[in-house]
Design goal:
The chain is an alpha+beta fold. It folds into two domains: 133 residues, Immunoglobulin-like, CATH 2.60.40.10; 134 residues, Immunoglobulins (Immunoglobulin-like, Sandwich), CATH 2.60.40.10. The protein is 16% helix and 42% strand. The chain contains three helices and 21 strands. Strands 2, 4, 5, 7, 9 and 10 form a six-stranded mixed sheet that branches. Strands 14-21-20-16-17 form a five-stranded mixed sheet, with no helix packed on it. It has a four-stranded antiparallel sheet with strand order 1-3-8-6, with no helix packed on it. The longest helix is centred in the C-terminal third of the chain and has 26 residues.
Length: 325
């Protein structure tokens, strides 16, 4: 009997522990989510971040890591080792970098990050992420159990320059519509008039500093009518490429063929349609241009009308034969 009672108590305890663990919630926010700054060698700045805990009480750790571009979609890859000459420290009295601290539910913690650029630092860009990650309490007691970490971060883009002038060297890698039709292994930009037409614009940054494109893409149809699509400004890191998005009347579809599109043209198109891109990178920066075109014809509508006419003619022939007989 005692063994049964012990088993029942043990089972109930495991049940409540499981519910408690499942009920644990980690919900953190940090602002600003992105920092872009220009610093001269030998200077330093202090940035105030605000960290808030919306979940359960938790142990946290703050650190700074280097990152690099991962792909042309704006994703990044955190590096295993800290790189670059930039120095980071915290001006807080109660917390330090890579030292755990405790944050209660609903509490805020201001993180005063000091960024220092040593003298003789080479001019160019340096990319980092301020990371706040959870530390399960068991880890603080040297518990060997495995725990999942939850992290949030704020990217830091630092441009080091003496003069304040940035190196702007953009290049259009691709500006075209995505078409599947090929004739003799040559891509032909032909669509049905009712098709949604995906447009792709990829830019490359060959300069030493990150750039942020602005401008518009203009569609001109066979009748001279123009539609304008504003480019959505997004950072292109140094020595990387990025797919540039633009506003449009049609959202990017979940279909695989539209995944790598900048935006999608939606409407009725006929004949030759010309696309032109005008892109610049802030005040007093030179513009770059690109052109593309595509053809559209109502193939589906013509097919439906043709089938309808053929059926109608066949019906008329049968009716005439019956009348003659």
């Amino acid at each position: 009997m005692k063994k049964i009672i012990i088993i029942i108590i043990f089972t109930i305890a495991i049940f409540f522990i499981t519910i408690f663990v499942k009920a644990q919630q980690v919900s953190l926010s940090i602002s600003p989510p992105l920092l872009e700054t220009i610093i001269k060698p030998g200077k330093s700045i202090m940035i105030a971040y605000n960290l808030k805990n919306f979940g359960d009480p938790v142990y946290l750790l703050v650190k700074v890591v280097s990152f690099e571009p991962k792909d042309n979609l704006g994703n990044i890859r955190l590096k295993k080792e800290f790189e670059g000459p930039i120095k980071f420290s915290l001006d807080n009295a109660n917390i330090q970098l890579e030292n755990p601290f405790f944050l209660k539910t609903g509490d805020d913690q201001q993180i005063l990050l000091r960024i220092r650029v040593p003298e003789n630092t080479p001019q160019g860009d340096y990319y980092y992420t301020l990371i706040v990650e959870t530390i399960p309490s068991g880890n603080l007691n040297n518990n060997s159990a495995s725990y999942a970490k939850i992290s949030i971060g704020s990217n830091i883009l630092i441009t080091v320059t003496d003069s304040g002038i940035v190196d702007i060297k953009p290049k259009v890698v691709i500006f075209d519509v995505l078409s599947k039709i090929k004739i003799f292994n040559q891509k032909i930009n032909i669509f049905d008039s009712f098709d949604k037409i995906p447009v792709v614009l990829i830019l490359e940054n060959r300069g030493k500093n990150f750039i942020k494109p602005e401008g518009e893409i203009i569609l001109k149809n066979i009748f001279g009518h123009k539609e304008k699509y504003k480019i959505i400004p997004k950072n292109i890191l140094s020595q990387s490429q990025r797919l540039i998005e633009a506003s449009s009347s049609s959202k990017i579809s979940e279909k695989i063929e539209f995944k790598n599109s900048s935006f999608i043209l939606s409407g009725f198109f006929i004949g030759k349609n010309n696309l032109s891109a005008e892109i610049f990178f802030g005040e007093n920066s030179p513009k770059i241009f690109a052109k593309a075109s595509f053809f559209a014809f109502p193939f589906k509508l013509i097919s439906i009308i043709t089938i309808f006419l053929l059926i109608s003619l066949e019906i008329i022939k049968k009716i005439k034969k019956k009348e003659e007989s």
